[in-house]
Structure formats: structure tokens, C-alpha cells
Amino acid sequence: MKRARNFSAGPAILPESVLEKVQSEMLSYRDSGMSVMEMSHRSSLFEEIISDAEQLLRELMNIPEGYKVLFLQGGASLQFSMIPMNLGKGGKVGYINSGSWAKKAISEAKILKVPNMEVLASSEEDNFTYIPEIPETDEAYDYIHITTNNTIEGTAFQTIPRFVNAPIVADMSSNILSNRYDVNDFGLIYAGAQKNIGPAGLTIVIVKEDLIQTENKLPSMLDYRTHIKNDSLYNTPPSFSIYVAKLVFEWLKDLGGVEAMVKMNEEKAGLLYRTIEESDLFSSPVAVNSRSLTNIPFVTGNKDLDAKFVKEATSLGFLNLKGHRSVGGMRASIYNAFPYEGVKELTEFMKAFEAKEGKFK
Amino acid sequence: MKRARNFSAGPAILPESVLEKVQSEMLSYRDSGMSVMEMSHRSSLFEEIISDAEQLLRELMNIPEGYKVLFLQGGASLQFSMIPMNLGKGGKVGYINSGSWAKKAISEAKILKVPNMEVLASSEEDNFTYIPEIPETDEAYDYIHITTNNTIEGTAFQTIPRFVNAPIVADMSSNILSNRYDVNDFGLIYAGAQKNIGPAGLTIVIVKEDLIQTENKLPSMLDYRTHIKNDSLYNTPPSFSIYVAKLVFEWLKDLGGVEAMVKMNEEKAGLLYRTIEESDLFSSPVAVNSRSLTNIPFVTGNKDLDAKFVKEATSLGFLNLKGHRSVGGMRASIYNAFPYEGVKELTEFMKAFEAKEGKFK
Ligand SMILES: Cc1ncc(COP(=O)(O)O)c(C=O)c1O
Ligand SMILES: Cc1ncc(COP(=O)(O)O)c(C=O)c1O
Ligand SMILES: [Mg+2]
Ligand SMILES: [Mg+2]
Ligand SMILES: [Mg+2]
Ligand SMILES: [Mg+2]
């Protein structure tokens, strides 16, 4: 069974050993005679899975006490609304407009008519090709929202801004567990699972409990307090996705945790960025000081040649290299589970393609 | 690999052939070199899966034009809030309080301060042991909400009420595709997938498009119009669960569709109800004219004996027979995928247990 070189931005490649484990347990998890898909979420077998998953994530990210870990549904997109509902206390809220997803977060806050919303910095006028400079402030904000890694544009915050009176809320969908972060720098971290963690349909929220508003009664499913009180088992959770996430966390831990992963990701991304830099055909649209470790766009500057590259790459088994429709060109998403070997093969193909086609640029 | 007799109320047993298919495609779906878990939801491979899933469901339920089929996240519990948000137009709304889940739907509508809400009928005073009589009305309601099958209490509507000026909204979580229904009798049908359809984390909504309100701007993820406009691909859907659902729909169609399933379910439930009726030890707490085909509670009338029954059953591989904590006793959930043979074995065990323990009642 030949596995693809799958550069998808999400849902994305998962560790082969995890898929093999899932496969082997499909009809009977630990001799239970049931698939995890078939297990009551109130069973002791499943309760062990979800509590192991939480414990492993706490270990991997070094999550301090006072922070709750929630396993939710709805994707990162539902968090765009749940965050203002749960953390907004009528004070100011700030947003950094660093990419297409940040912009969606902003527009959802607007739909909720969040009072006192400010966009504190933006790189939209330059097509989000860099992380904008964030002004210092000691004013109080209920929260300031950032997108640590901008999946579509391939930019990432290199340092997390700190404010005295404003907790940082971070959409970490596309680089959770891929970059080194100190959870203490954040009031809330959220991420859709479908890039670095597991199947789509699971959303991780890590929230400092004392930031949550207690004034407004919210729909139960949209209220973090509901899920905190019920250990993410208020209603039926996306149990199978949580099980796969647990296996991914185990895989990650076995490989040496986030530290080891960052090293590998730096090697993978380093190789690809070097190839792009050294090439006369390919270039990066992203400012050098803003580059992502996980999502790496590149272009030839010629749309037809881009299309030709993607087509030939696809026929060779390098899948999903087409850039997002809003950006064009190519994008290689190389999350934790993407092997170094695959990046190496891609760079070799890029060189071969350049030797053959570079002159037609 | 011995498979359990899994009577779980949800997540629940799935067809063995579906699990085997999922297993065989785990590392490479149709020679793609990718698991469905790893596939971009914008890929043609996945688009085929979701559109096949919709097509199959439309066929199985005979869903008329004018009704949209949505694949959402958040469980049936999130629909308790999305329904009043999306169908409430400021007119009256009615609820039938027929069980614990119906009651939750009511309490979520209250949280939203839905104006003009009326509970039109209730059997709560009698522990929800029957479906309450529903008063006729020709007054206008934005909708009237019913729970076709009350999972916890084991009751089901035997006929769907019809009103001239009030579309019926139905929580069909625990008997969608298990009972015979005419979609035309409903304005909206919703169901969590984890009983009759697939893994938890997927919610099906079938909605008559012209009932949706257009006055209020809602958070995008909570707005049916968002998902209609984007064919359930506004954000990353629970793609793997949709894939499993598709396989379950195929399995169901191969077996002869809902008609065939109803016949099998009547045989399974008939056998169990007969056994309960004929027994001096076991009895059903549910009124004869309100009984569910899919969730069948029974009791000995003696808590210790109930516990003993559940314990011995468990040791013999009859799993998850313990009744819901709010009701006690036993409950056998026998959804579409639960085999007749398993019900037969259970009834034989019940008889053996009665022969041995009946005298201690
Ligand atoms: C940074 C970021 N935020 C949010 C989203 C939206 O996530 P979801 O599809 O889970 O709603 C994505 C999806 O790719 C993303 O990359
Ligand atoms: C009839 C009914 N409605 C709603 C629910 C809640 O569903 P979920 O857990 O998907 O939110 C259930 C769950 O068992 C149910 O049986
Ligand atoms: Mg972006
Ligand atoms: Mg270059
Ligand atoms: Mg109920
Ligand atoms: Mg009896």
C-alpha cells in the first residue's frame, strides 16, 4: 500500500503508525468486542481514553493548573463566536488582522456586535505577507486575539506579544504542538484537530478558567462552563476523534515531545526554504521574518508554470500542493506527521522541474 | 475477534461489514495513498463521499426537493439552540415535553428567551412513561417541537401530529432510519449520528428551506443558511464521520432500505416485548401504546435484582444494558445494526435468569 506525499493543509497527513493502530483496533478495542466508535461515552473504557488524551496533552504542552482542556465540536470557526461570548465582559477586545482566518475571527466578533472592538494591527493591505507590528499598550482588554500561524498565507508569529492587562487568545489551529510555546503566555488557545492532532470534527480549547465571564447565560453548548463542569462529556463528544488524538499524542511523546518535533520541523522547513532561496525559478511570497514552519507557500511568478508544476507533482504522488484559491501558487503544508523524506523528495522534484522548465519562466 | 452484544444507547453498535470496510481503507482510500481522515475536504475524492452520502440519505428517506440536508457538528444538543435561532420568527413556538431530551430542548429555548413559548403537552408528571396527548390547534406556530423517540424512557410517537399552521420540528436522534416516516410531515428533522448513522460528532439536519428566518444575522456557524450555501463545506466538516455514515447508508440500502429495516426492527422489538410480557419477573415501565422500537427499558421491580441481572449479563458479553441513571433498571437499545440473533440470546438469558432468580423477587 503506497502512501501519498500528502501536503494537504488540513485535514492533513497522520502518522502511519497511528493509522495502523486504529486499523488493528477497528473491530475490537482492547478485546472489548467493540470499536471505539461504538462505545458509550459514559463507559469506563472511553473515560480512560479521554482522560489519557487530556493528560498527554497537558504533558506535551506543559499546561499549568488553572487552565482547563476542553474537547469540543464545531471547528475553530465556532470558536470565532464562542470566544467573544465567553471571554467578552464588556471591556475592550483587540484583534490582530494577520491573515484570512484572523479576518474571519474579526467578522464573527462583528456579527455578535462585540462592544469596543479594535483591530490593533493589520497586514491585509500587503496581502498578509508578514505579521504586522503590534503596538504596545498597557490598557485593559478582555482579550487580544492573534492567529499564531496563518495557514493560508504561510506566516507565523515569531514571538508572542505580552501585555500587562490583556490576555492573549490564540488560534493555534495550524501550529499547535509544532512550535514551542509557553501556555502561560496565553489566556486561551484553540485549534481544530485536523492538522496536527487528528480527524476533523474535534476542537481543542485550553482556557484559563478565571477569564471566563459569569454574567451572561449562554446556550449550554456554547458555554465553556458547561464543558468544564462536565469534563467535555456534557453531551456525546466526538469520541472517535478523541481516541485518534490520544494516539497521536502518544506518538508525539514517544518521539520526544514538542522539543523533538520543533527540531524536525525546523529541518524540514529549513530544507524547503533553502531550496526556494537557492532557486531562480521559485520564490517565497512571505517576508523572511514572518515565515511559518508548517505552511510554506512558493510561486514561480507565472500562473501557467505554477499549474504545470502542480500537475506534474500530483502525477508523481506529491498531493495537495496547490495554493489556497485566495493566494494561488503552491503551498506545502508539512505538519508534524509529514516525514522529512517527503520534503527531500519534493525539493528534488523542484530542482528537476527547474532544470527542465526554468528557462520558460 | 469476538464482537460484543452491545446494547449501548449511543454511541452504538455499527454494522460489522461497515467496520471491516473502514478497516480495509484505513491507510489508503481507493488507492489514494491517504486515509479519509487525511483528505482535504476540498478534494474531489471527499466531495464525492459527501455528495454520495447526501444522495443516499435522500433516497433512503425519500426526502423531497425543497428540503436541504446538512452535515453539521455539535450534536443534537446544539440543535436545541440552533432551531429557535433559525426557525423562530417572533411568533409562537410549541414544545411537547415527552422525555428528558425534550426537556433539555425546552430549557435551551428558555435560555434564548424565545418569545411566546408554550409547552403544549407533557408526561413529565408520570415519569415520561407515555407520549402525552397533543391538543389540536389551528393557531399559527413558527414550529412545534417533538422528540419522535425518547431514548431514555423508551417511548415513541406512533403517529406524527399534523397542524395546519405549525410545522413539526423533530428530534429523531434515536430512531431516524429505524421507523417509517414521511418527511413531508416535518419542517425540520435532526439527529445526532451516533445511534443509527455513524460515529459521534456528526449531526444531520433535514430542513425545509423556506422555514428559515432571514431577519436576524446569526454567527455564521450557527446559521443554517451558511451551511446550505456551502453544501456543508463552509468550514472543515467531520469528514471521517461523514464517510462512515455513507457506508452505513449503503449498507442500509443493500439490505432493502428503511422498509426492510422497520420489518427487522419490529421482529427484534417484538421478541423482546413478548419476552417481557410473558415474564413474571420482568416488566415494561412504558405504556403499551407508546413503546419504542429502538430503546426498550425493562425492570424487575427490585433494584438489587436489576443490578444482579446487569452484572451477570455483562459477564456473558451483553454490554451496556444498565438503564439510564435517571430511570434505573435495564434498557436494551437495539438500533438498525443490532442483530436479531443478539436479541434472541438476550431473551434466552432473561428466561434463564428468571428460572434461577425469579423466586427471590
Ligand atoms: C488558522 C485557522 N483557523 C481556523 C480555521 C478554521 O478551522 P475549522 O475548519 O476547523 O473551522 C483554519 C482551517 O484551516 C485555520 O487554518
Ligand atoms: C433523543 C435525543 N436527543 C438529543 C440527544 C443529545 O445528543 P448529543 O449527545 O448528540 O448532543 C440524545 C442523546 O442521546 C438523544 O437520544
Ligand atoms: Mg490565514
Ligand atoms: Mg528563489
Ligand atoms: Mg428521552
Ligand atoms: Mg412481565
UniProtKB/TrEMBL annotation, chains A, B:
Cited function = Catalyzes the reversible conversion of 3-phosphohydroxypyruvate to phosphoserine and of 3-hydroxy-2-oxo-4-phosphonooxybutanoate to phosphohydroxythreonine.
What family name appears in the similarity comment?
Answer: Belongs to the class-V pyridoxal-phosphate-dependent aminotransferase family. SerC subfamily.
In what pathway does it function? Amino-acid biosynthesis; L-serine biosynthesis; L-serine from 3-phospho-D-glycerate: step 2/3
What this protein catalyses is: O-phospho-L-serine + 2-oxoglutarate = 3-phosphooxypyruvate + L-glutamate; 4-(phosphooxy)-L-threonine + 2-oxoglutarate = (R)-3-hydroxy-2-oxo-4-phosphooxybutanoate + L-glutamate
Query: What residues does the Aminotransferase class V domain cover?
Result: 6-346
In the record, N6-(pyridoxal phosphate)lysine modifications are located at: 195
Localisation per UniProt entry: Cytoplasm
**Its EC number(s):** 2.6.1.52
What does this protein's record comment on cofactor binding? Answer: Binds 1 pyridoxal phosphate per subunit.
Q: Which GO terms describe its molecular function?
A: O-phospho-L-serine:2-oxoglutarate aminotransferase activity; pyridoxal phosphate binding
**Sequence positions that bind L-glutamate:** 42
Keywords attached to this Swiss-Prot or TrEMBL record, sorted alphabetically, are: Amino-acid biosynthesis, Aminotransferase, Cytoplasm, Pyridoxal phosphate, Serine biosynthesis, Transferase
**GO CC terms of this entry:** cytoplasm
Residue ranges of coiled coil? none
Pfam families reported for this sequence: Aminotran_5
CC cofactor: pyridoxal 5'-phosphate
Q: What does the entry give for GO biological process?
A: L-serine biosynthetic process
For pyridoxal 5'-phosphate, which residues are the binding ones? Answer: 76-77, 101, 151, 171, 194, 235-236
Quaternary structure and interacting proteins, as annotated? Homodimer.
Give the protein name, as stated in the record: Phosphoserine aminotransferase
